[in-house]
Structures
1.
Amino acid sequence: MKIKIPLAIPYIMTGIASSFALSLKIEIMAEVITGYTRLGLGSAILSAQRSDPTNMVPVFAYSLVAIVIMLVFDSVANVVKEKYEQ
């Protein structure tokens, strides 16, 4: 146990980061499709599309916010992974 767990931590962190990014994308798509929540990124994208379908700037801005959130969590996972690789 003392040897196997520390060796597996980089792979565990990579899996956590990948699954979090995928779940965030799925959550945003579900909000866009259903429009059920009021305070999510998907609802903001949907309302921006409904208010002016030709203006794609807000949609790209909200998408950029989602990408930045995913990059932050990915970088945190990489820092933790590098800490345990040493």
Note: Residues 4-34 form the longest helix (31 residues).
2.
Amino acid sequence: NESYRKMSVAYTNIFTRCGLNFRAVEADSGAIGGGHSEEFTVLAPEGESRIACCDACSYAASDEKAALRPINAPDEAELPLAKVATPHTSTIALLAEYLKIPVEKTIKAVAYQTEDDVLILAFLRGDHEVNEIKLVNAVPGARELRMADEEAIRAVGGCPGFMSPIGIKKGTHIIVDATVMKMYNAVAGANEKDVHYKGVNPARDFTNEGLIITDIRLVKEGDPCPHCGAPLTMTRGIEAGQVFTLGTKYSEAMGAKFLDENGKEHPLLMGCYGIGVGRTMAAAIEQNNDKDGICWPRAIAPFEVVVVAVNAKKDAQLACAEEIYAECRKVKLDTLLDDRRERAGVKFKDCDLIGYPIRITVGPKAVEEGDIEVKVRKTGEVFHFTRETYIENVQELLKNP
């Protein structure tokens, strides 16, 4: 646990020094397994990961992992359970429209089968979606899910499009989202075609043996933060690194053990840590660019400084550029000399496209007057320094990551 904490801190420091806007988010361990896991996710609209963030506290989690509190429905006097005909209402939207009720008063059913053909029936409030990762974690032994076959649903007493836990055969895996159990006088399927129950009070009516009540819904914008209750904000990001506590999952399988001070064997405790270098680069570019190209943060720029000889065909300009290049290198600035015999505009355009943080331009004024032009790529600001002071000023400009 201490090693995991140190690695988490180290990863936080690395991505901070890279100049990235990121969040360390609680994540599902997935196929790797183990205990706790965090993804280091660089925020970017084009990212593949959906992230739930709280602006009122530090909570952040992937949409696969985000824990959600049950939502309490307003108290109502319980009505008796009663069947009602609901022809051609096999979807929640059609049901709500037909009965003229809010979607929030309906209970939806989603049926899955595992890789071993085990049937799982999941029940949620009508406006919520199933989080399949949470659902897999709720069923012992489940690893993968697919949508269930109609035959499997009918075999346990269900009716596709008109399901509820009421009347389902004993021994079926029934998972009910915790929010459903807080509902009053809802509408749910009667396990008969074109028929639903009204007056469903799950705490009273869902009495199936072995029924599991847990959080299985997918987080959405505005859901309350599980830590402080403030509304969550949904954003997207690029996963650039992840850390895991693995416990003894792999060491037990491999027989990897150590002897304690009493000579007793124990399985090793393991952790797993990784940074996606290519992903980090891509994420940095997503966050640091403009119409002209990349604006690299200093820590991961290909070079901190590029020295451009405006006209490399002029011996005096080239010699001056080479001297400035050598002076920058002497003070440990990571510097590139662009001494190509190209037009100045071509070289300037390439500098912007590649995104070196600082460009030093060596033209006639640098040779004749000692006037050194320095441009900051990120802001576009242009400064003029003397030959005696430019190094100190460039070093100061580079302090901004």
Note: The chain has a mean pLDDT of 93.
3.
Amino acid sequence: MGKDKQDLRYQQLMERSGATPGDLERRALLHIISGNEELYSNVNNIYDFEENVIITECLEGDSDVYLSSSSRKLVKLAYHLYNGYEASVVDVFSGLDDDNARLAIEAIKIRFNI
């Protein structure tokens, strides 16, 4: 995906969530969602913009939301960066393609202001 398209998506999600530039947790979460086509198309099943909370049910086995294994790993990382949701670095990065690995690393940099 082009950087401009991701930037536009990211800005739209930031506005929709009401996140401020200092909200590093939410910025990291929204960066991951905006940078992955599958996550972006399922954004309303991943994050509740009215309550400003994550929707962990999307990761449960009986969920109606289908996410590929790499998208599930990115959601786990996004949730971990947002509120400490349990995620293993080894599990998250194993099997990610280069684009998704870069997306994950960028989100970590956002979260920790690196």
Note: The longest helix spans residues 3-17.
4.
Amino acid sequence: MSLPTGISIRPHRSGRQTIQIAFTYRGQHCRESLRYRPVTKQNLKYAADLVSRIRSEIASDRFDYLATFPQSKTARRLLGKGPTMTVSEMLDEH
């Protein structure tokens, strides 16, 4: 199966597979798993559309990493957000 650019399928030890997307943000190569979307043709299209949207938002400086991936450790690291930040604190910053 040929996958769109920026999309890969990540196998897990359990035998489960997840869709993983890749993009560059602030000069850093980022990967995010779409944990709750099983590997299907429809979800692969969703992932390709998501990568396209993210790249467009990054190019126009409108990408909100934490809003798109609220559980992302990568987003927190890149944005300097500690794991103890409360929802109230995050909302105050926006």
Note: Helices lie at 41-59, 65-68, 73-79, 87-93.
